[in-house]
Write a structure and sequence with these properties.
The protein is α/β, with parallel strands linked by helices. It has two domains: 183 residues, Glycogen Phosphorylase B (Rossmann fold); 153 residues, 3-Layer(aba) Sandwich (Rossmann fold). Helices cover 41% and strands 15% of the residues. The chain is built from 13 helices and 13 strands. The chain has a seven-stranded parallel β-sheet, with helices on both faces. α1 packs across α13 and α6 packs across α11. The termini are close together.
Length: 360
Amino acid sequence: MRIALNAHLMPAGQTYRSAGVAQYIAQLMSRLPALGPRHEWVFFTPPGAVGEHSCPSHLPTRSAPMRILWEQVLEAPIARRRRIDVVHNPVNVKPLFLARPNVVTLHDLAFLKFPETFPRSKALYLRSAVGKSVRDADRVITPSESTREDAVVHLGARRERVVVIPMGVDERFRPATDAVRPLPEPFILSVGTLEPRKNLPLLLRAFAQLREGGYPHRLVLIGAKGWMYQEVFGLIQRLALTEPVSMPGYVADLVPWYNYADLFVYPSVYEGFGLPPLEAMACGTPVVTSSAGSLREVVDDAGVLVSGNDENELAAAMRRVLDDPTLAAALRARGEERARSFSWEATARATLAVYEELGR
């Protein structure tokens, strides 16, 4: 069986294009051929990509308009010409006229539920393309039950066609006493692309309360600039947090940061899965997160859950963990145990099973 994966959103350097869905694509690319050696694999990739299974485009698909053009105009005829049996589009949208058995991964419905957190053009494109993709696909993969329910209720997906396959946590995320401490002082960590959905203004206001209460911690916000992030920088100035807030941008090796953080905080307003809290738990870091979207489903009782809309509640939760070593130790233990139930190997195996079901 010939199986194609649209990998045009594979990791792209030190930008937000290397986070989230890019890691999902990279993990599938690295694991599927070994799990399914009897199949022929084709990875549709941007220009310049190399690898045994890579099929690079001649269009500059790192550009969003060029990628959309390739997906909607060229992907289907290329798949026909290469006699592909099953095509997987792993980021929300499939080609309009892709007739052969196809799979689409729907990561979340933030563009529909929180359109104000997207640039207008991006939200309009997703609203017009994602619903039809999900309704037309032979199988829809979602990373959580929460996103599956959203797909059925809000997009009209056929429940029997939607398969929940959670994401995993890479083996490198673990307690690592040999990691070099990245900062000398104690710090609170948050990881995620700088964009409105991550709810960083709420975290900054809660952190300001902690500083006023005498806590010595820095706040480290790791993540590349995404979109509509200007409010974050403006609020740091207004709250006089320029000195205690560090923003190193995109960081390739997060293991030392997770391991040495006293607390990981993730107040996102909505997530289809939520990789950073899972990675933090795998490293034994106590987690405070909102319960929005799938986060309650992923974190369960291994973290402290908050509403994500009350800075006083968030500040109280942060103080509670920082002030109680017994609670922090319990969260570390529960987090490590919870993280062990997620693996990229399981994600890839379950994804391969979807392909093979369609290719029968």
